[in-house]
Amino acid sequence: MTDSSPSTPRILPCPQCQKPVQWRTDNPWRPFCSERCKLIDFGDWAAENHRIPGGYDDEDM
Ligand SMILES: [Zn+2]
Fold first, then answer.
1. 50-57 contacts: CB < 8 A, separation 24 or more?
2. Can you give the pTM of this predicted structure?
């Protein structure tokens, strides 16, 4: 059984720039609109994990 429903692809906002993104299996950057947004998001994530320990803890909520 193959899913051959001709429904239109779902449109979701890019988590990075809020641009509408077609949710297609052939979009390698899902859920982002482009490689650029994907890399930007990954950069943010990496920056969060690379915080210097023993820094300003009292500034953190
Ligand atoms: Zn984007």
1. none
2. 0.56
Give 50 Cα–ligand 1 centroid separation in angstroms. Answer: 24
Ion ligand 1 residues within 5 Å by Cβ: 14, 16-17, 19, 33, 37
pLDDT confidence bin for 10, thresholds 50/70/90: confident
Residue spans of alpha helices (H) in the chain: 35-49
Q: How far is the CA of 8 from the centre of ligand 1 (A)?
A: 20
**CA nearest neighbour of 13 among 4, 5, 24, 22:** 22
3-state class (DSSP) for residue 15: coil
Distance between Cα 6 and ligand 1 center (Å): 26
